[in-house]
Amino acid sequence: MKKKIVIVGGVAGGATAAARLRRLNEEDEIVLLEKGEYISFANCGLPYYIGEVITNREALLVQTVEGMSKKFNLDIRNLSEVVEINRERKTVSIKKVETGEIYEESYDTLILSPGARPIVPPLNGLSDAENVFTLRNVPDTDKIKAWVDEKKPKEAVIIGGGFIGLEMAENLHHRGVNVSVIELGNQVMAPIDYEMAAIVHWELDNEGVELYLNDGVKAFKDGGRTIVLQSGKELTSDLTILSIGVRPENELAEKAGLTLGERGGIVVNQTLQTDDPNIYAIGDAIEVRDYVQGTPAMIPLAWPANRQGRLAADHINGRNAVYKGSLGTSVAKVFGLTVAATGNNEKLLKRSGVDYEAVHIHPNSNAAYYPGGSQLSMKLLFQPDTGEIFGAQAVGYKGVEKRIDVIATAIKGKLNVWDLADLELAYAPPYSSAKDPVNMAGYVGGNVVEGDLSLVHHHEIDEIVKKGGVLIDVREPEEREFGFITGSINIPLGELRDRLSELPEQQHIYVNCQVGLRGYLATKILTNNGFKASNLSGGYKTYLLGK
Amino acid sequence: MKKKIVIVGGVAGGATAAARLRRLNEEDEIVLLEKGEYISFANCGLPYYIGEVITNREALLVQTVEGMSKKFNLDIRNLSEVVEINRERKTVSIKKVETGEIYEESYDTLILSPGARPIVPPLNGLSDAENVFTLRNVPDTDKIKAWVDEKKPKEAVIIGGGFIGLEMAENLHHRGVNVSVIELGNQVMAPIDYEMAAIVHWELDNEGVELYLNDGVKAFKDGGRTIVLQSGKELTSDLTILSIGVRPENELAEKAGLTLGERGGIVVNQTLQTDDPNIYAIGDAIEVRDYVQGTPAMIPLAWPANRQGRLAADHINGRNAVYKGSLGTSVAKVFGLTVAATGNNEKLLKRSGVDYEAVHIHPNSNAAYYPGGSQLSMKLLFQPDTGEIFGAQAVGYKGVEKRIDVIATAIKGKLNVWDLADLELAYAPPYSSAKDPVNMAGYVGGNVVEGDLSLVHHHEIDEIVKKGGVLIDVREPEEREFGFITGSINIPLGELRDRLSELPEQQHIYVNCQVGLRGYLATKILTNNGFKASNLSGGYKTYLLGK
């Protein structure tokens, strides 16, 4: 039987659903409604067009209304805003954006893919500030780019250090603008933990981006030219990007009486249906399950939106289609750095009261003797008894997102820390080491779970030393010239076996090295000689990052 | 109880085993015997030192005898060749290479890690050829590099187009030498299939490397300066590298009465023990299980050697340690190209009589609108009823080994083609697309298994068209100007719905496009309209590669 399917929202999830619906069924009537002018545009590319990294505006328009209509035999209506869902009549009320005219369209099945919109707080002076922008779509992009092209701003202020904020920071910097970033939290890039974000802070500093952490905007003055921070500081801005986060476009669903989650996401079941089985919802507007913990989560990213679009179309056509939740796998380029993460971070695990352990490693991206490699920092989070993987983070200049992709795959395959050690990954000197960083993380994790390795963490060691704990720094004396942990005693690894008698037998011994590897060898020597010993996870490097 | 463990072979697996043994036990006596001068050197880096990509020779020496002895408290003896295993006495006979003196050393447990040596066929004139080299270790490297430095060869001939052959081709080319590669088979790089290797053939051609396929060496003349091929061709060579493969160093094991496999590998059980439970064997010299099929295989690569070294040490110390077999995951840089593979290739599956299906895709390494990306070619092999993944290959300029690592992980996680589609991988425009190439391969594979998509292959289509089969090329007319499959009829995808009446209703319709995506959309239109249709896997691109 021929069905009529109406889709609200023509970007990412909505466009994907439309294409998939047509591939599955040549007869169905498929109506795609988009309130904006453009459908299926490259959201994630927008900052790069402003930065002139992408130079061709057309390239942002992945599908045009005309092209996609023809290719997939769709009824696509842009500039068409759905203002009401009439569930009893199974119709939607559509407002033609240009004329204001409202008409009704019937549906057998409705898919809501309205997305999320940038949060705009009610700040003093904001309404008079012409130079403050948010970035969501092509018209926003055009406005910001025109402002940069025409006004040639000298100073830009980014409010919010998330993905869009940092991508805009990089792209405005690329345009020759001095950039400041204001972040309310103590770190940028919420998906990663503080000591990992510290590497990003360094990178921003190196690139000359001013970073104001633990500070927010109190008010705008002088028509937006002056930004007053909560700390009292005042910044001059010729261009301000407001990127403090997004909020699900849930009004339509709410008005229709569909259930919303605590954070406003439209609640759906595993087959992406709302309370009303004839209404599906997908993309940034919905509440998903955290893949690892099974708890509700809001994860406004492109992959879930696309995947959900496909699955909704499958389910509408009677196929098995279960959305299993989101890992929130993400990656961002921040100048030369790549920052990637998957699954749960430590902040979330701590907040959730879940029992976890973390390991930090700083291996080379590829064989140290092959040129062009660089150190990368990884953090692996796992269940301390079973070795179940909760999540991972990586930051560095090369081979970063590869390791996160592997761990995201491992999580979906229900692999544990030992399995990570057993992954047979591609090795040649330009690409990796015979023990890949993922293998290394797995080995360290396995050692912890098996009790072969006791860890102490960067945020614990100062307190321990202060209270009289013994900390042995097993690096060479030359390395300590660049800094060491106050109170640590230097016994280089090569001398440790001969100097065991210097150590107090009754006391727990803490060990640190530069990145954690020699420290591990040292703790093995110590424990095999009857001492109780713990290694500082990630060594002095992680300690320094955590400061 | 204190044990005495003797290890034969101080590179890769042997060195790893020694280090792990010490970490697990501080008391054991660990003797590491190496017949060469160097232990634990960077095998995989040797070609790059000859090519002066790696400029520091010291960098190749990962561990020195002195350094490693001290760090791990080991008894390391280099220039010490084990010439006999005396199983009854539990001793080995060791020849001091420098003096010829032989002495016995007892063991409780023996680990054999002798490696594999380059195959040198008994060719006419070889013994008189001073300019013919094999490459296995540091002295070989020194000899080749000295020859290049001093003799300044103009013409080099590489015999054998495997990993070492092609890495040497690139590195000698980098030194300004004209390079020819002779390969007995119809393709280079045995781990991948012919149509994938074709991309490598193009790359070699682009870089000015002469490639002689389906040809071998018959004899050397003029002291090696002339190489006579089986085809009768004669090549001039100032420097010849013999890299046709390796053979396990199995003589010691054989003489000791340990079982060898059909291809000469030392047979071990899952805990890496030979027939004699006191003798373990690891690395290139052993026969492993193919991880996918469970059949015997020889996989002389660094990852398995290292992994086995660790596991043997674990098992010796009473720990659970099972080597689950080798996927043979591999990667090589061939000039700008990256060539990577994991699991079974089509040649092996065909030879084994296993039921399989293959899909080819040619997606972009990252978002097409973001600069610096490039097309990559992937092949996925799987069980056609269950979707079990057998293997994958990828060739391209960017993001290649990442996708293979993900699929290698998926295989270890027992994920199937649908799961590949469901992998939540890291996406931002510089790194991937919202549907990653791995997702794409999974979607196509899933479509095939579910019967949503019928494929025809590059090696089948000519015959089909010749016999009167209908082949529709759904590309635009402009694209056909660069070539098309003889006998194909052009109906651009956008016109297909309107021109269905032109198609014969009773005949199976074959479809091709450029890379397979539009062809898939076309087959969906056709089958949804009652036609029987198949898509050419990988489109015209794979067809051309398969020529």
TrEMBL record, chains A, B:
Q: Which UniProt keywords apply?
A: FAD, Flavoprotein, Oxidoreductase, Redox-active center
The record's annotation in SMART domains points to: RHOD
**Classification via InterPro entries:** FAD-bd_OxRdtase, FAD/NAD-bd_sf, FAD/NAD-binding_dom, FAD/NAD-linked_Rdtase_dimer_sf, Pyr_nucl-diS_OxRdtase_dimer, Rhodanese-like_dom, Rhodanese-like_dom_sf
Residue ranges of every copy of the Rhodanese domain listed in the record: 465-545
Which prosthetic group or cofactor does it need? FAD
EC number(s) stated in the UniProt entry for this protein? 1.8.1.14
Q: Please name one Pfam family that this protein belongs to.
A: Rhodanese
Q: Report the domain of life of the source organism.
A: Bacteria
Molecular function (GO) terms for this protein are: CoA-disulfide reductase (NADPH) activity
**What NCBIfam families does this protein map onto?**
PRK13512.1 (NF010037)
Q: Which family does it belong to?
A: Belongs to the class-III pyridine nucleotide-disulfide oxidoreductase family.
The protein, known as: CoA-disulfide reductase
**Protein source organism:** Rossellomorea oryzaecorticis
